[in-house]
Design brief:
198 residues, four-stranded parallel sheet, homodimer, 4 strands, alpha/beta
């Protein structure tokens, strides 16, 4: 990479550490950045530092927000007796985009992963259990359909069931519009197991 | 995007303006950035601003470099009588990686594009002509094989030929390892026109 200047090489190096950005994309981005007006580069750089420094979590559901409590938790029109448990704020956003879910959320901040050394005490499970002391009727576990997500779902189910609160898990199966021949075997078998009468 | 904080939304907005980064990648990158240690975020941001502020072009070939003259132009082992004309520093880097080209370069900083309003005076053609006053035997035009690149190549050819200096164009054809059925018709016809006896 010594065909470029040290500054460019350093920038390419920094960019290629980001997820999904290989050395070629990093070079393309770096050359785009040096072609941008200086104010725009400063704006981009400042937005990164600002976002990192001003990160704040909702005191109730632990999603990322600018206020003490997020708009969803403050909303009177939401059903506060139904809590959807998700791994990250991005998963919350994915469900919010559907516009159909009326309950509230609980953001765990990850999933149990013995491989990565993430245990139940490393994610916000204690905080979830504390919230259940209120008037909660159902906990919908919407962790990812990965090994870690399933492990976390099972752990939550065991943790809560004895309290008499309903615990459900979002369905797993063939995605809408999915082409059967392109879908992995595990998903196909899940879809078969979870079949419903029509 | 109001499921996230304003800081995150702003960062996602900034990132999605970069080439090849859509809204989903921008969100993934933004959440990765806020999960990075603060020093690393500052390092990344500083590398962008530094690269932009310290951009410097070689006084001879106009490639991006940290010094007044780039290592290639300063090198005594390179053949300074052969100049390869490229559009960008990235194209120069692509040929340098082959390790086989022994001449020097001239970076135009773009290509002639009537569509984008880029004329001959907007790229470094005047500087190229000035370099030809020295002891130059051949100019190899290695602009892209696009409409703009070809237009620029033809322009350079007309500009220089009268001076008696040899002007050549890199070959265009089927890429090595390329599968014929996957290659566009224009390239196939170029490859046919440019056939060589074996």
């Amino acid at each position: 990479m010594d065909y470029f200047s040290n500054h460019i090489s350093r920038l390419i190096g920094e960019l290629s550490r980001l997820p999904g950005i290989g050395p070629k994309s990093a070079a393309r981005l770096a050359f785009h950045i040096i072609d941008m007006p200086e104010e725009e580069v400063e704006e981009l750089a400042a937005s990164m530092v600002d976002a990192k420094k001003n990160i704040h979590y909702c005191k109730t559901c632990f999603t990322i927000t600018d206020e003490e409590e997020c708009p969803i938790c403050r909303s009177r029109s939401r059903d506060h007796s139904t809590i959807m448990v998700v791994e990250t704020t991005r998963d919350l956003a994915a469900y919010e985009k559907t516009g159909k879910y009326e309950g509230v959320y609980h953001v765990l901040g990850g999933a149990i992963s013995p491989m990565l050394g993430i245990g139940p005490s490393d994610i916000r499970l204690k905080e979830l259990v504390e919230r259940l002391r209120g008037d909660v009727k159902e906990v919908i576990v919407a962790t990812n359909s990965s090994l870690e997500g399933e492990t976390t779902a099972m752990y939550i189910s065991k943790l809560i069931k004895s309290s008499g609160i309903k615990v459900s898990r979002i369905a797993s199966g063939v995605p809408v519009g999915g082409d059967l021949e392109c879908i992995d075997e595990v998903t196909l078998l899940r879809a078969l197991d979870g079949r419903v009468e029509i």
